[in-house]
Amino acid sequence: SMHQSLGDYALAERHYKRSLALREKMGSRYGVAACLMSLGALYEDKGDDVKAAENFEKSERIYEEIGHVRGRAEAMLALGRHNSEHAKHEEGLLLALQALRMAEGSEIAELLQDAHLTVGNIQRALGRSDEAAAHFRAAVASIESIRSLLTESGQKSGFLGKKLKAYEELVSLLLDQVA
Questions:
Q1: pLDDT score at 155
Q2: Which end of the chain is least crowded, N or C, by CB within 10 Å?
């Protein structure tokens, strides 16, 4: 959220928790998992490692229960990066490799790129330069496959995608006014 990027973690946390409560009330398991991912990232930014890991793990479990492959893989990658950043490289690598297998099965190029990048970074942290380089090359290949598919309309969609932040901020502002 904007508040998180500006370092106002308390306000960002209130927004995410309010959003989480709304998603739970609506019965949106996907929405709950997405909010937990956001909270995990927030806690990671704040340096609250325990809460970050708990939220990534909860999100991953929900995505698994509802069969959302991309969400589950993204949660596993977040947890893998988190573990690696806290000197649990082998644990992080196992999660990232599992997410990579899921990404390969999904054929979602963006997810595949992120998985290769994450595995490459963890391999680098483990001192495995050759393995890291292979994954970085695979990540670049995934990016190039996306770029090569862009058409004029595809570029327009990408441009619009970057503009969705305005909608997020409007909703955030409206939620503040209701509170």
A1: 55
A2: C
